[in-house]
Amino acid sequence: MSGLVLAGGASRRMGTDKALLLLDGEPMVLRAVRCLSPICAEVLVASGDGRRLDHLGLRQVADTIPGAGPLAGIAAGLQAAANPLVAVIAVDMPHANPNVVLRLARSWAGEPAVIPVVGGRPEPLHAVWARSAAPALVAFLQGGGRAVKEALSVLGARLVDLDGAMAFVTNVNAPEDLP
Questions:
Q1: Do residues 165 and 118 touch, judged by C-beta distance below 8 A?
Q2: 132, 57 in Cβ contact below 8 A?
Q3: pTM for the whole thing?
Q4: CA dist 58 to 13, 50, 165, Å?
Q5: Where are the alpha helices (DSSP H) in the chain?
Q6: What is the CA radius of gyration of the chain?
Q7: In this structure, is the dihedral angle defined by the CA atoms of residues 58, 63, 68 and 71, taken in order, positive or negative?
Q8: What pLDDT tens digit does each residue of the chain (179 aa) get?
Q9: Which residues is 116 bridged to in the sheet?
Q10: DSSP characters for 31-82?
């Protein structure tokens, strides 16, 4: 399995780059990479332009379609991944859980993505995607699609109820969200 950290957002509500925001003395992007490293053969970072985080020495990919949101980062990561499955986590999920990712990966049966659902909400930015979904995802983006929920439906992602595992869904969008 490959790993992909989504770190290309503009961080408007935070007011500073979330990828570089220190949490327990560590940039959030490095924390996310560290989360995926034990379970993934490689870890890529979708950094928007593919260069923004060069100073950290991370392997980056540029969004397939600049400015097209998280799906463009996922598409870029799927295209660059060396393995059939890609564990995707957003950089602003400080409690990302490798055990949840492994559970999703073990339940994969060939679908374009296996998406956890917590509290009735799908969490596609902490999920497992199939590398083979890249062409359909790129076509969705090229057709003007940007809504993640719509992409999940169009691609035929499988949703897995994980109501018992809540902490991983916490994300940090604004300073008041910091733990």
A1: yes
A2: no
A3: 0.93
A4: 25, 10, 29
A5: 28-36, 70-80, 98-107, 134-142, 148-155
A6: 15
A7: negative
A8: 999 999 987 666 656 788 988 888 999 999 999 999 999 999 999 999 999 999 999 999 999 999 999 999 999 999 999 999 999 999 999 999 999 999 999 999 999 999 999 988 999 999 999 999 999 999 999 999 999 999 999 999 999 998 766 667 667 665 565 66
A9: 160
A10: HHHHHHTTT-SEEEEE-SBS-TTGGGT--EEB-SSTTS-HHHHHHHHHHH-S
Tokens of 99: 């055990």
User: What domains can be seen in the chain, in order of their start residue?
Assistant: 2-177 (3.90.550.10)
- The residues, any chain, with a CB within 8 Å of residue 17's CB and separated by 6 or more, are 11
